[in-house]
Amino acid sequence: MAVQEAGQGGAAAGAHGGGCTCGDCPHGARAGHRRAVAAFLLKRDEFAAGQGLPAAVAHSASASRQWVSEELTQSAELVAERARAEGEARLARLWWRTTSVVWILVVVLLLVQALTAIGAGWTSARTAGLLAALVTAGALTAASWFHRARGGALAPLIGEDNRLSTSRAVAGAWVLFVAYAVLVLVGRLAAASGHEERDALIAGLELGRGAGVVTVLAVVSAIAVLVRRVVGVRVLGQRLQKVRADRPRAADLLTDDAGRGTFADIQYVVIGGVALLFAAVRLGRRPDQLPDLPWGLAVVVLISAATYLAGKYAEGGRPVILSVVRAREAGDLDAPIRTGDDIEIRGAGFVPPGGQGADRLSRMVVRIGAVHVHVPLVPVSGGFSNPTDAVLRVPVPADVEPGRVEVQVVTAAGMETNRYAIDVTD
């Protein structure tokens, strides 16, 4: 498929550059990104198979490795540029999709109310619920329009790393639900004709009726604010690596930065969603008061929130160098580290979550004494053998002075490891 895309990319590029962001143009940002990815994959697999090397560098293993790394780096930078363009184009169109989903939900609510009204009749509570939904949908539509360049109504849920935030999404869902429930009571209060009915509706807003919902709302909102602070402090304190994503995805709510499902996020979304569904059913059954969320269910949500917060404190960690040894090829004699030799740096956390792309890997640097050495990309079929999360392999340049020098790795997220001393001989 990659070969076919690369072959078709040349003809399509002649009709259109592929780097524009002109809406739904078939040769716009998405097509440009796909062609760049296909060309990169084709080039990587060719180099992994030993093809495409110029004769001037084919005789030297170190020269060919350096040349391949530079070629792949340039191609990866083009892929990253196209990915950012596609992400911006998708984000600009997202406001229309979120607005459509909101109004579809309003239509679904109308259909449900119409179906359930058969036999029971239409009541003022159904009218108030529908009007509250219209007001909420109108407010979300207006917010989507003003933030249409940043994802519409989802703009407040997108974190600084350009990913959907699980804590903000859960808190936003509860805020919208409570606002909708209050609007339903406001509508019923406006339509009430008798003093007793109005007093009963006002009493429905008392804390004793909705203590569980209010407690959950306060906790999930505090968690959203606290998590942002925790992540920011840990990044600045070099205890957490964060790499910016090309665009937000729905899967961000259930996964970590590397795209792997995480227990803390999944249980928080699932339990919060189940409790929200229960509260919505209670509101439908008793629209004259705030949903009386049972304390048992509220405590379950609080435990889930505490688990999520603990997961945020536990994730990440600073990359560390455990050892540095001289890289030995088959047939080489054992010897000390000399300039021109390759060294193998063993440790953990060299590749930050979300930094597995070639453009991120090419930004890794190893400081050997006062010399900065860029980690070469070594392609293999389907990926790269260097660098990896636990092992880096770099040459010791001739500019390194013999003697005792310190080795330090700088990751793609800008985080530095500990310093590890090695002896370099003449």
UniProtKB/TrEMBL annotation:
Full protein name: Integral membrane protein
Highest rank taxon of the organism: Bacteria
Species of provenance: Streptomyces regalis
Keywords: Membrane, Transmembrane, Transmembrane helix
GO annotation terms (biological process): carbohydrate metabolic process
Membrane-traversing stretches: 100-122, 128-148, 169-191, 211-231, 263-281, 293-311
